[in-house]
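Practice record 12: protein with 6-aminouridine 5'-monophosphate.
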Amino acid sequence: MVKLMLALDVMDKNKALTMVDEISKYIDAIKIGYPLVLSSGLDIVKEIKDKTNKEVICDFKVADIPSTNEKIAKLTLNYADGIICHGFVGRDSVEAIQKIAKQYEIKTHHKKKVIMVTEMSHPGAVEFMQPIADKLAEVAKILNVDGIVAPSTRPERLTKIKKIVGNIPIISPGIGAQGGELNAVLDILGEDDYIIVGRAIYKSENPKESAYKYSMLLKGHNG
Ligand code: NUP
Protein backbone atom coordinates (compact mmCIF):
# COMPACT_ATOMS: atom_id res chain seq x y z
CA MET A 1 0.00 0.00 0.00
CA VAL A 2 1.27 3.49 -0.85
CA LYS A 3 2.14 5.18 2.43
CA LEU A 4 1.42 8.65 3.74
CA MET A 5 4.25 10.86 4.96
CA LEU A 6 3.26 14.09 6.67
CA ALA A 7 5.47 17.09 5.92
CA LEU A 8 5.37 18.80 9.29
CA ASP A 9 6.49 22.24 8.18
CA VAL A 10 4.86 24.21 10.96
CA MET A 11 7.07 26.73 12.72
CA ASP A 12 5.86 26.30 16.25
CA LYS A 13 6.84 23.48 18.56
CA ASN A 14 3.54 23.25 20.41
CA LYS A 15 1.59 23.31 17.19
CA ALA A 16 3.77 20.51 15.85
CA LEU A 17 3.27 18.38 18.95
CA THR A 18 -0.48 18.95 19.05
CA MET A 19 -0.73 18.19 15.34
CA VAL A 20 1.05 14.83 15.57
CA ASP A 21 -0.98 13.95 18.64
CA GLU A 22 -4.16 14.45 16.65
CA ILE A 23 -3.22 12.82 13.39
CA SER A 24 -0.38 10.37 13.88
CA LYS A 25 -2.78 7.43 13.75
CA TYR A 26 -3.65 8.28 10.14
CA ILE A 27 -0.11 8.63 8.83
CA ASP A 28 2.81 6.27 8.28
CA ALA A 29 5.74 8.62 8.59
CA ILE A 30 6.62 12.19 9.54
CA LYS A 31 8.99 14.41 7.61
CA ILE A 32 10.66 17.18 9.56
CA GLY A 33 12.50 19.94 7.74
CA TYR A 34 14.15 23.26 8.37
CA PRO A 35 10.97 25.22 9.21
CA LEU A 36 10.37 23.12 12.34
CA VAL A 37 13.97 22.39 13.34
CA LEU A 38 15.15 25.97 12.95
CA SER A 39 12.23 27.24 15.00
CA SER A 40 12.24 24.53 17.67
CA GLY A 41 15.72 23.01 17.76
CA LEU A 42 16.93 19.60 16.69
CA ASP A 43 15.56 18.01 19.88
CA ILE A 44 12.11 18.23 18.32
CA VAL A 45 13.09 15.21 16.22
CA LYS A 46 13.53 13.04 19.31
CA GLU A 47 10.41 14.47 20.92
CA ILE A 48 8.25 13.64 17.92
CA LYS A 49 9.84 10.22 17.54
CA ASP A 50 9.22 9.41 21.23
CA LYS A 51 5.68 10.75 21.14
CA THR A 52 4.50 9.02 17.97
CA ASN A 53 6.83 6.09 17.45
CA LYS A 54 6.40 6.73 13.71
CA GLU A 55 9.15 6.72 11.14
CA VAL A 56 10.73 10.19 11.27
CA ILE A 57 12.66 11.46 8.26
CA CYS A 58 14.71 14.65 8.35
CA ASP A 59 14.44 16.63 5.15
CA PHE A 60 17.68 18.57 5.31
CA LYS A 61 18.52 18.18 1.61
CA VAL A 62 22.13 17.83 2.61
CA ALA A 63 24.42 19.07 -0.16
CA ASP A 64 27.95 19.61 1.08
CA ILE A 65 31.42 18.13 0.88
CA PRO A 66 31.73 14.60 2.29
CA SER A 67 33.26 15.57 5.64
CA THR A 68 30.55 18.17 6.37
CA ASN A 69 27.83 15.79 5.19
CA GLU A 70 29.17 13.25 7.67
CA LYS A 71 28.81 15.69 10.55
CA ILE A 72 25.27 16.63 9.55
CA ALA A 73 24.34 12.95 9.21
CA LYS A 74 25.83 12.12 12.62
CA LEU A 75 23.75 14.78 14.36
CA THR A 76 20.59 13.97 12.42
CA LEU A 77 20.57 10.18 12.41
CA ASN A 78 21.20 10.05 16.13
CA TYR A 79 17.40 10.38 16.43
CA ALA A 80 15.90 10.36 12.95
CA ASP A 81 15.16 7.19 11.00
CA GLY A 82 16.31 8.76 7.79
CA ILE A 83 17.80 11.79 6.12
CA ILE A 84 17.20 13.38 2.73
CA CYS A 85 20.25 14.51 0.78
CA HIS A 86 21.05 15.86 -2.65
CA GLY A 87 22.87 13.79 -5.23
CA PHE A 88 23.97 16.56 -7.59
CA VAL A 89 26.98 17.31 -5.37
CA GLY A 90 28.44 13.96 -6.38
CA ARG A 91 28.36 10.39 -5.18
CA ASP A 92 31.18 10.81 -2.63
CA SER A 93 28.97 13.24 -0.70
CA VAL A 94 26.12 10.72 -0.64
CA GLU A 95 28.45 7.88 0.28
CA ALA A 96 29.68 9.89 3.27
CA ILE A 97 26.12 9.92 4.61
CA GLN A 98 25.64 6.23 3.84
CA LYS A 99 28.77 5.47 5.86
CA ILE A 100 27.34 7.20 8.92
CA ALA A 101 23.95 5.51 8.43
CA LYS A 102 25.66 2.11 8.39
CA GLN A 103 27.57 2.91 11.58
CA TYR A 104 24.34 3.80 13.36
CA GLU A 105 22.64 0.67 12.03
CA ILE A 106 25.38 -1.51 13.45
CA LYS A 107 25.28 0.35 16.76
CA THR A 108 21.50 0.54 17.21
CA HIS A 109 20.16 -2.36 15.09
CA HIS A 110 17.72 0.10 13.55
CA LYS A 111 17.45 0.91 9.87
CA LYS A 112 18.68 4.39 9.01
CA LYS A 113 17.53 5.52 5.57
CA VAL A 114 19.51 7.65 3.18
CA ILE A 115 17.11 9.20 0.70
CA MET A 116 18.38 11.06 -2.36
CA VAL A 117 16.61 13.79 -4.32
CA THR A 118 16.43 13.25 -8.07
CA GLU A 119 14.03 15.84 -9.51
CA MET A 120 12.22 18.32 -7.30
CA SER A 121 8.52 19.07 -7.53
CA HIS A 122 8.42 22.85 -7.93
CA PRO A 123 8.26 24.57 -11.35
CA GLY A 124 11.86 25.81 -11.10
CA ALA A 125 13.16 22.26 -10.97
CA VAL A 126 12.80 21.97 -14.74
CA GLU A 127 15.53 24.58 -15.14
CA PHE A 128 18.57 22.79 -13.72
CA MET A 129 17.44 19.60 -12.03
CA GLN A 130 15.29 17.96 -14.67
CA PRO A 131 18.07 17.82 -17.27
CA ILE A 132 20.24 15.77 -14.89
CA ALA A 133 17.50 13.92 -13.00
CA ASP A 134 17.66 10.67 -14.99
CA LYS A 135 21.38 10.53 -14.36
CA LEU A 136 20.83 11.21 -10.65
CA ALA A 137 18.32 8.37 -10.59
CA GLU A 138 20.94 6.08 -12.15
CA VAL A 139 23.44 7.12 -9.48
CA ALA A 140 20.83 6.47 -6.78
CA LYS A 141 20.43 2.98 -8.17
CA ILE A 142 24.19 2.36 -8.27
CA LEU A 143 24.61 3.64 -4.71
CA ASN A 144 21.63 1.56 -3.65
CA VAL A 145 20.17 4.34 -1.54
CA ASP A 146 17.14 3.57 0.61
CA GLY A 147 14.82 5.92 -1.20
CA ILE A 148 14.63 8.71 -3.74
CA VAL A 149 12.53 11.86 -3.96
CA ALA A 150 10.65 12.38 -7.25
CA PRO A 151 7.78 14.72 -8.15
CA SER A 152 4.05 14.05 -7.96
CA THR A 153 3.56 17.30 -9.84
CA ARG A 154 4.88 15.65 -13.03
CA PRO A 155 3.48 12.11 -13.27
CA GLU A 156 5.30 11.46 -16.55
CA ARG A 157 8.62 12.24 -14.88
CA LEU A 158 7.69 10.15 -11.87
CA THR A 159 7.04 7.23 -14.22
CA LYS A 160 10.37 7.69 -15.99
CA ILE A 161 12.36 7.99 -12.75
CA LYS A 162 10.62 4.96 -11.25
CA LYS A 163 11.59 2.96 -14.30
CA ILE A 164 15.22 3.89 -13.77
CA VAL A 165 15.40 3.23 -10.02
CA GLY A 166 13.43 -0.03 -10.15
CA ASN A 167 12.75 -1.30 -6.67
CA ILE A 168 14.19 1.65 -4.75
CA PRO A 169 11.30 3.22 -2.82
CA ILE A 170 10.04 6.59 -4.00
CA ILE A 171 9.04 9.42 -1.68
CA SER A 172 6.93 11.77 -3.71
CA PRO A 173 5.93 15.33 -2.80
CA GLY A 174 3.59 17.66 -4.65
CA ILE A 175 0.11 16.34 -3.90
CA GLY A 176 -2.35 19.01 -2.75
CA ALA A 177 -0.86 22.47 -2.27
CA GLN A 178 1.53 22.15 -5.22
CA GLY A 179 -1.23 21.02 -7.54
CA GLY A 180 -0.33 17.35 -7.89
CA GLU A 181 -3.28 14.99 -8.10
CA LEU A 182 -3.42 11.83 -6.08
CA ASN A 183 -5.22 9.80 -8.74
CA ALA A 184 -2.58 10.66 -11.30
CA VAL A 185 0.21 9.11 -9.22
CA LEU A 186 -1.44 6.21 -7.44
CA ASP A 187 -1.16 3.95 -10.44
CA ILE A 188 2.53 4.76 -10.77
CA LEU A 189 3.56 4.28 -7.15
CA GLY A 190 3.80 0.91 -5.44
CA GLU A 191 3.51 -0.52 -1.96
CA ASP A 192 6.97 0.58 -0.81
CA ASP A 193 6.45 4.15 -1.95
CA TYR A 194 5.18 7.19 -0.08
CA ILE A 195 3.36 10.36 -0.96
CA ILE A 196 4.39 13.40 1.04
CA VAL A 197 1.56 15.73 2.02
CA GLY A 198 2.14 18.91 3.99
CA ARG A 199 -0.06 21.97 3.68
CA ALA A 200 -3.10 20.07 2.41
CA ILE A 201 -3.17 18.50 5.86
CA TYR A 202 -1.63 20.88 8.40
CA LYS A 203 -3.07 24.05 6.86
CA SER A 204 -6.52 22.66 6.26
CA GLU A 205 -9.41 23.70 8.47
CA ASN A 206 -9.49 20.25 10.02
CA PRO A 207 -6.07 18.55 9.81
CA LYS A 208 -7.35 15.41 11.48
CA GLU A 209 -10.11 14.99 8.92
CA SER A 210 -7.75 15.75 6.01
CA ALA A 211 -5.21 13.20 7.20
CA TYR A 212 -8.00 10.67 7.64
CA LYS A 213 -9.26 11.37 4.11
CA TYR A 214 -5.82 10.85 2.57
CA SER A 215 -5.34 7.64 4.53
CA MET A 216 -8.73 6.37 3.32
CA LEU A 217 -7.98 7.29 -0.31
CA LEU A 218 -4.72 5.36 -0.10
CA LYS A 219 -6.46 2.42 1.52
CA GLY A 220 -9.29 2.53 -1.03
CA HIS A 221 -6.85 2.48 -3.89
CA ASN A 222 -5.01 -0.44 -2.46
CA GLY A 223 -8.26 -2.26 -1.88
O1 NUP B 1 11.04 18.14 -4.61
C1 NUP B 1 10.64 18.32 -3.47
N1 NUP B 1 9.49 18.96 -3.26
C2 NUP B 1 8.97 19.19 -2.01
O2 NUP B 1 7.89 19.77 -1.89
C3 NUP B 1 11.35 17.83 -2.36
C4 NUP B 1 10.84 18.03 -1.08
N2 NUP B 1 11.51 17.54 -0.05
N3 NUP B 1 9.67 18.72 -0.92
C5 NUP B 1 9.15 18.92 0.45
O3 NUP B 1 7.91 18.24 0.56
C6 NUP B 1 8.86 20.36 0.83
O4 NUP B 1 9.98 20.97 1.39
C7 NUP B 1 7.73 20.20 1.83
O5 NUP B 1 8.29 19.85 3.10
C8 NUP B 1 6.98 18.99 1.33
C9 NUP B 1 5.76 19.31 0.50
O6 NUP B 1 4.88 20.07 1.25
P1 NUP B 1 3.47 20.56 0.69
O7 NUP B 1 3.70 21.19 -0.63
O8 NUP B 1 2.59 19.34 0.61
O9 NUP B 1 3.01 21.53 1.74
